[in-house]
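Researcher: Next entry in the queue.
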Amino acid sequence: MKRKLFSLAVLCILYGCATKPEVVIDHPPVSSAQSVASKKSSLPSIPSTAGSIPRSSASPVVKASVLIRVPFTSQAPLANWDAMHEETCEEAAMLMVQRFWVGGTLSPQTAEDELQKIVAWETDHGYGYDVTMPQLLEVAKGYFGLSGHIDTNVTEAHIKELLSQGYPIVIPAAGRELGNPYFSGEGPWYHALTIVGYDEKNFITNDPGTKRGESYKYPYATLLSAIHDWTGVKEETNTGPKRMLVLSK
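Model: Structure for this entry, 249 residues:
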């Protein structure tokens, strides 16, 4: 056995060993203390305090690469890019995360029906076309009954830490700084999308701003630079605060 291990080690040094595939997360995170039965029915909540993160007593392990399987929808599921759907990126980003937590898929019609209901609820409760991440947290709590917090520690390391624990992240962005070639024209002044993973060079996102947005990759520096919350003036989005929304059941 020792001789075989030594031979393998020599081969790795001479020819290189295959890298491990990315970690794929299909289900919401659960506490290691939960039993198999409780894992199927109970999910952790995240304290609603800015800058805090869900963590166990041990330091979280940041994986080399991660992909959380979050159901995808564009903000115009039926390809109807009317005035309403031009403004539903925040709702679509939130909806994808909600569906990850409760389970199930998002067909175009299901996503369209849900977006219409969310927008109607927001209108009834006095929200505008564009909402900040704190306001989107209010919507997530009030409409879906989710928990969550606003996180201001917007760094590559911290985002990877959250993703490694199984938490997709909703981010606001100065859309024109993203450089997505599938956006119409120069792209939206204000945009929202969901980070679902990362690899060696990129964050992996579900970007509702295009039908090609599932698992769309942005270089780390590009996405981090573009993260800015809504300021109330679209042309000034790139001056907005850096913060992100972390949701849980």
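Model: The first helix runs from residue 2 to 15.
Researcher: Noted, moving on.
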